[in-house]
Amino acid sequence: MTESTPDFIYLASQSPRRRQLLEQLGERLSLLLPDDADAAEALEAVRPGEAPAAYVRRVTGLKLQDALRRLNDRRLPAAPVLCSDTTVALGRQILGKPRDAQDAADMLARLSGQTHRVLTAVAIQSGQRRVDALSDSRVRFAALTPADIAAYIASGEWEGKAGAYAIQGRAAAFVEHISGSYSGIMGLPLFETAALLKQIRA
Fold this sequence. Notes:
Elements: E1 9-11, H1 16-24, E2 29-31, H2 37-42, H3 52-73, E3 81-90, E4 93-95, H4 101-111, E5 115-126, E6 129-141, H5 146-155, E7 175-179, H6 182-186, H7 190-201
Parallel strand pairs: 1-2, 1-3
Antiparallel strand pairs: 3-4, 3-5, 5-6, 6-7
């Protein structure tokens, strides 16, 4: 690392999981959060017919643009800015964050006994240079009973989670098999993220 290279990065995410995962890599972080959480959520709207991979890349790009604007508006010191977004896909159907408990229960019922994809896009920009990557993992759920789903909904763990579950929490008991990146399923693929950070600092 040269003297002119900042020794920290901005994380433009409200996810405590992403913060923990970046800290696991030994990164020093400064949070660059939106002023309006509702406006930030609006960036995640799905376009009709949009494919899951295209969706998650597009949303990550929008989040990055928004974060760079905040960096400029707040006149903060220059440093790399990292954004990420995760979505769950069953076929071409995108399962985002559930609207309410019933929506979450419906999502879990659809995932029961099925293999779904978890896609996480990561984008980092430093100055005019931008790098990005996409992690695409497969997760197979066991068949869930109505009681399994009801107990999980009662835990509240589904709130704010794409696909209505958190693999690092109680929903780990539903998972028969994964193929891909466990940290990517959590919300930030560490292998890809570490490679991007090397690129942006080279």
